[in-house]
Amino acid sequence: xxxxxxxHVILLACGSFNPITKGHIQMFERARDYLHxxxxxxxxxxxxxxxxxxxxxxGLVSSRHRLIMCQLAVQNSDWIRVDPWECYQxxxxxxxxxxxxxxxxxxxxxxxxxxxVNTPSMTPVIGQPRNETSQPIYQNNxxxxxxxxxxxxxxxxxxxxxxxCVRPPxxxxxxxxxxxxxxxVMRYEEIELRILLLCGSDLLxxxxxxxxxxxxxxxxxxxxxxIVVVPRDAADTDRIMNHSSILRKYKNNIMVVKDDINHPMSxxxxxxxxxxxxxxxxxxxxYLSQPVIDYILKSQxxxxxxx
Length: 307
Fold this sequence. Notes:
By secondary structure, the chain is α/β, with parallel strands linked by helices. The protein has a domain at 5-117 and 189-262: HUPs (Rossmann fold). It has helices at 22-37, 63-73, 85-88, 95-110, 149-158, 201-206, 215-225, 237-242, 245-249, 265-268, 270-278, 284-287, 290-299; strands at residues 7-15, 41-50, 80-82, 173-176, 188-200, 227-230, 254-256. Strands 1, 2, 3, 4, 5, 6 and 7 form a 7-stranded mixed sheet that branches. Helix 2 (63-73) packs antiparallel against helix 13 (290-299) and helix 4 crosses helix 7 (215-225). It is an enzyme of class 2 (transferase). One of its GO terms (biological process) is NAD biosynthetic process. Monomer. Keywords: ATP-binding, Cell projection, Cytoplasm, Cytoplasmic vesicle, Golgi apparatus, Lipoprotein, Membrane, NAD, Nucleotide-binding, Nucleotidyltransferase, Palmitate, Pyridine nucleotide biosynthesis, Transferase, Ubl conjugation.
């Protein structure tokens, strides 16, 4: 399978991130590594989407603080970014609506429809036109033949002037080499792109709680988009999925990260990081990156038990 025939993926994580922990970032890294190892996917970007203030969770600090902490946590990443759209809405948004927003945003920016799990495009990839020197579409010093997340997401996020997109009758993106001489011949490459929800096994297990999730939303989340699950505390994801008819129905759309890394809940837990802050526990450095800790102390967050 070539680079262009692999499915290109953007991982989207929704949550309180109150505060964002090292474990949250590790989930992105582990998910990307696992998807790459399958040989079927190329992860080109990750999106952290903090929940709206009206979510109403006890101890939830304002989105202004949570957005800044998330930005500090990913400031050295070349492929994970923080998106404020969910926080900037008038009220709380469902996970389903956040996924749909990002799908529709990509569609508006590129003029194409994103592929989803159930209807992948089967059209052959468009290659280089004849009589044209073979040259990688995406270039950087380290990997001249591979797209970089920063460049592709930058293209999507900046403006249409940085992306030229044809409108094929299939669910594909077409990125055009911005350095090509468009006056003579256009070099282009077609890739399939999906947005997948990244979550821990605790969120997957919450799908099994009657009445907690809207069933129509679950159908869209799992059936149309798909989920990448990072197990926590050796969770039995097969047992979890067997407890939900919707999860069983779309089991093939749920990718469980399988690796040899121990990923205890405490590493990800925002609750334990807040407790460590309140108690002056030096082990807070195990949970939070130093820039996040510095911001929390400067802003006097989580000092009181009330948050």
